[in-house]
Amino acid sequence: MKIHDLSMPIWEGAGYGEILPVTNSPVRFVEYLVYERHGLRRTLMKLDGESGSPFMTPSQNLPFSAVPLQPNPKYQWSLSEIPLDRLVLRDTTILDVRVAPGHEITAAEIDAALRQADYRRGDEVLLRTGWGSRERAYAMGLDYYKQTPCLHYEAGLRLAEQMDAMDSSLFMTDCGLVNPPRVQGHNWFLGDTPLVPLPKPWPSAEARERNIDLGGRTHASAEPSSYGAIIRKAIAGCKCLVDCEQIAGGRCKMIVLPLLIRDGGASPCRFFAVEE
Amino acid sequence: MRLLELTMPLDYQWMPDELFPTATQFMLAPRGDPEKGITVGTESGTSLLLPAQFAAFRRTRRLHEVEPPALVLRETAVVDLPCDRREPIGQDRLAAALADADFRDGDALLLRTGWGDGAPREPGHDAYLLDTPHLGLDGAAYLAETMSRRHSNLLLLDTALVGYPDQHLLPEWTTLRPRPLCWPSEAARAYLAGYLEREALADWAADFRLAEAGVMTVKRLVNCGAIGERRCRVIVAPLRVVRGIGSPCRVVAVEGTPT
Q1: What pLDDT score does B103 carry?
Q2: Residue B157 falls within a domain, yes or no?
Q3: What number of C-beta contacts closer than 8 Å exist between A and B?
């Protein structure tokens, strides 16, 4: 049995916490017991529900708001309500869509990948582009997210339909963002009027202004959300997985364990692929 | 295959483990709040701590370096040690319990005292921490020696603490009235300014002894009474913190053959 770790590491200043104004706030560590003074270490870790490789339920803003990101989601479990057997040793199909940096995956490319995949009823889905790697994330910083492959809306719809038909409930990908960066970062780091220099994220003054402008939406683009299409049909959406190339075959079993936050909506998560 | 949740939920309204100034208050904050997101400490809730938590072992592996087989589907022996409140677990009790367990080379060890199932964890109680059974120093030394001999380096406990900080933290901090808040309160800052290496190592001597033997520890398991077999596999999933020395974690027991 081989076990592969597909989890994006967490470190202070990681790009995923710096690229967007509101949805993913920065990772900060406060060391309050330190080796040289106390002989041991203890750390306060300020994270976000989208830090690292996140696990995000449809009602991502739980426990503070039960309103789902999209109306009428198929599943409405909070983190502490998801049965363990929906998270541990889940049969998973790998959808391989090898594309260039920045490419927006199309519905036709999803169809082609579905034809190639060994996709069985009840499988979870791991969309593998080859983009996600620790080394790339460490080296590229914010560009890791600006240049990530992603899903065009039509592709998101197509995949959501298939997942619904096949009783799949977990969507995982090694893309840095599911929505195109031009959508997710519209008029923040891309778009018609990106902000230069790029402001710090929440709780900066600029991020607060953006939050006012968004009025509860997750991005400023008029284009629909490909992530939104998928999350309507899933227990959770999971992005920023890394090093998925370790999986040799087209199938594996996934162990997916977010923090057990009572009534929580999203959390950093560990992803392990198990191959016989 | 049977899956069992052994993790104490992280509760944004109240956690039973935030008594000491060395603990961080677990917080969730909503969109629009300056602290939006998740604030956790190294040992919030069910947590994994590596030997590198101590300066003496800071050159040993960190969280991002722990290979998956050390934590995932790890063969585990369940050791039954029913304990009274505040009982220090010593060498004799451990030797007897280990003799009854099916402990094999390379196993992780899960010490089941029953505290994680029956202890008071309701808001307002501090008994979960103060009254927890714990390893005595001779018990920790015995475990360290025995586990080293059996090539075992992962110890899981259903107690609130591994050792018991009765040299300084208990007499000096828990007697303060009204009870100060944990980190990052001003009172915690003030106390930790004088809580130096000598005091810390005196309080956490049992933890240090295990770290010296290279043992990773997971504490604050719950629901261990649901494990029906003498052996199981455990999955321990901490945050993958770069150069981290410990983290809250999710712990799941797998009974039967993983399928």
Answers
A1: 98
A2: yes
A3: 187
Cα distance between residue A70 and residue B93, in whole Å: 56
Query: How many Å apart are CA A17 and CA A9, to the nearest integer?
Result: 12
Helices of type H across chain A: 35-38, 107-116, 134-140, 143-146, 153-165, 181-184, 205-214, 226-231
Calpha distance A56→A257 (Å, rounded): 12
d(CA A50, CA B236): 21
Number of domains chain B is built from: 1
Q: Do B5 and A84 touch (CB under 8 A)?
A: yes
Whether chain A has a CB inside 8 Å of the CB on B173: the answer is no
- Token pair, residue B219, equals 């504490």
Query: With left for phi above 0 and alpha for psi between -120 and 50, is residue A180 left, alpha or beta?
Result: beta
Residues in chain A closer than 8 A to B9 (CB atoms): 80, 260-262
CATH number assigned to the domain comprising residue B157: 3.50.30.50
Cis? peptide before B123, omega within 30° of 0 = no
HSE-CB at B145 with a 13 A cutoff on CA atoms is: 9
CA distance B62 to chain A (A): 12
Are the beta carbons of B144 and B212 closer than 8 angstroms?
yes
Which chain B residues are within 8 Å of A88, Cβ to Cβ?
A: 3, 235, 252, 254
Q: Which amino acid is at B119?
A: A
B195 burial type by CB count under 10 A (0-12 exposed, 13-18 middle, 19+ buried)? buried
| DSSP 8-state assignment for residue A243 | -
Q: How many angstroms separate the CA atoms of A105 and A82, rounded? A: 30
Contact at CB, B37 and A63, closer than 8 angstroms: no
Q: Is B116 on the interface with A (CB under 8 A)?
A: no
Buried/exposed A222-231: b ≥16 CB within 10 Å, e otherwise: eeebbbbbbb
Model pTM? 0.97
- Residue B14, in any domain of the structure: no
Residue B124 has pLDDT above 90, yes or no: no
Give CA–CA dist B159/B53, Å, rounded: 19
* Structural domains for chain A: 2-9+49-275 (3.50.30.50)
Beta bridge partners of A257: A270
Query: Measured between CB atoms, which of A11, A25, A33 is closest to B192?
Result: A33
Domain that holds residue B224: 2-8+42-177+196-255
- Closest residue on chain B to A48 (Cα): B37
Query: Is position B33 within any domain?
Result: no
DSSP secondary structure code for residue A185 in this structure: T
What percent of chain A lies above the pLDDT cut of 90? 92
Residue B20, in any domain of the structure: no
Q: Which residues are CB-contacts of A165 (< 8 A; sequence separation ≥ 6)?
A: none
Q: Give the tens place of pLDDT for each residue, B221-257.
A: 999 999 999 999 999 999 999 999 999 999 999 999 9
* Residue type present at position B46: T
